[in-house]
Amino acid sequence: MTFAIARGEDHSILKLNDTKAVEAFVDSAEVVIIGFLEGEESHGYKELVAASKKVDSVPAAVCTEKELWAAYSVSSDTITLFRKADDQKKNLVLSELQKLDVDGLVNFIATNEIRYVTEYNQVTAVGLFNAEVRTHLVIFANRGSEENPQLKEKLATLAPEFTGKFLFVLINGALKSNFKAINYFGLTTKDLPRVGIYDGDSDMKWLLPEGEISTERVREFCQSFLRGDLKNVKQAGHEPKSEL
């Protein structure tokens, strides 16, 4: 397994030179991005280096070994974002783009940076509602409250059990911009923390009954949806809408 640091005039980025290195890098974080590019002079190389400095929460690397690309369904210069939360890849095929700049690449990363627990905002909302997984386990909590870190950590350990079935979404009740989403479930900030399910396919939503938000209760809540048990349970909140 070979990792290297490629250095240019004013930049450096991890370089992946064999299959094991690529596999290890993809597995190293919840979200990573790899530039499958022919070399440092390729269009997109400098843009990826610059973007990775602006979005340092997402590890970035390049793979210039073309014989490794086929395993990732890449045939030409492509920047690929890998994420574990829904086991998906998002590709930017450079030959299909009219323009690629640093700001556009930063936006691509930020929009598609879906994690095991993704904080809801105007940017991540685009990626969440365009994801193939259409069902969201929604955690309403006030950032800054004592229970918020423990709750997020607890649900982050549960989320991998439901890869491909749910996206876990954290909605910060302390932000005025999120009041609409909270009210959509028939809640106010005084009711938080609470947990709900939003199903994008049926445009239906349910709340976990009040009580301790334990791993066991949330797991059973998710499984009850998957079994179809919630179809006969009264929906939460108000009339269905197309998005939160």
UniProtKB/TrEMBL annotation:
GO terms for biological process: protein folding; response to endoplasmic reticulum stress. Gene3D superfamilies: Glutaredoxin. One of its GO terms (cellular component) is endoplasmic reticulum. GO terms for molecular function: protein disulfide isomerase activity. Belongs to the protein disulfide isomerase family. PANTHER family: ENDOPLASMIC RETICULUM RESIDENT PROTEIN 27 (PTHR18929:SF253), PROTEIN DISULFIDE ISOMERASE (PTHR18929). This is Endoplasmic reticulum resident protein 27.
